Amino acid sequence: MRTIEVWPAVDLLDGQVARLHQGDYATAHRYRLQPIDAFNRLLDHGVPRLHLVDLSGAESGTFDAWSALAQAVRLGLRVEAGGGFRTPEAVARALAEGAQRVVVGTGLIESPAFADTLLERFGADAIVAAVDVQDGRAKVRGWTTDGEDDAFSLWERLYARGFRRVNVTDIQQDGSLAGIREAFWRAWSRQPGECGAGGGIRSPADLTTLAELGIARAVVGKAWLEEEGWIDLASLSEEEL
Fold first, then answer.
1. pLDDT tier, 240 (very low <50, low <70, confident <90, very high otherwise)
2. Residue 241: predicted pLDDT
3. Which is catalytic among the residues 54, 132, 170, 206?
4. Cβ–Cβ under 8 Å, residues 68 and 52
5. Is 135 a catalytic residue?
6. Inter-residue contact 103 to 81 (CB < 8 Å)
7. Residue 33: pLDDT above 80?
8. Candidate CATH numbers 3.60.21.10, 3.40.50.150, 3.90.550.10, 3.20.20.70; the one for domain 5-236
9. How far apart are CA 66 and CA 231, in angstroms?
């Protein structure tokens, strides 16, 4: 039986825990839960991983959730940080402050020179490429702008440059709790490298389907944050599901 590594997501908007629907900032739902409380909730259930995103930074181009990153690392979470990493200096700071990996999207897409610099300075293990997909194309700048690239072609080029991990978001499903689109992920499972999946994941059955397709990682947001408990945190406490 294939396994999948699950990364619960905490997205921050102006420092508050929030979720968007299909990446639309106008739909932002802000939770009463404070970031530190979300981190402790993960740890209380034995969950060791955190996918931390600065939504404000993704839109502005400057990651600014340094306090939250420091808190999460200090508590002992393994953090994958993203949202607004557009300079090598910002990536270097995140890694120095304890992030396990940094997720970079817009910068890689818009500047091949920047992509090469990240590989040269930090190596492929430290960087996750973000490919956020709507209607087959990659979105950039916090999903507010259409990129010029077909998503598959973009990842193939990044893989050829030396990147090995990609986090793909199915924007159509993101924040919807509607479940995954199996055909979408089947197509991504045929791409090279290690693929992480996000967008619409609502149940253990979705995680099982992704694992069976060969998807390596899953980023789960609303399904663990909502009070209805679509995905039980206790089921995420194992190193791999």
1. very low
2. 42
3. 132
4. yes
5. no
6. yes
7. yes
8. 3.20.20.70
9. 28
* Residue 43, Cβ density class (10 Å: 0-12 exposed, 13-18 middle, ≥19 buried): middle
Task: Confirm whether pTM is higher than 0.90.
Answer: yes
Tell me phi and psi for residue 200, to 5 degrees: 90, -5
pLDDT in tens, 162-209: 999 999 999 999 888 899 999 999 999 999 999 999 999 999 999 999
**Do the Cβ atoms of 9 and 17 come closer than 8 Å?**
no
Query: Does residue 11 carry a catalytic annotation?
Result: yes
Instruction: Determine which one of 11, 54, 170, 206 is catalytic.
Output: 11
What would the pLDDT profile of 44-102 be if each residue is shown by its tens digit?
Answer: 988 999 999 999 998 899 999 999 999 999 999 999 999 999 999 999 999 999 999 99
Match 């270097």 to its residue by tokens.
92
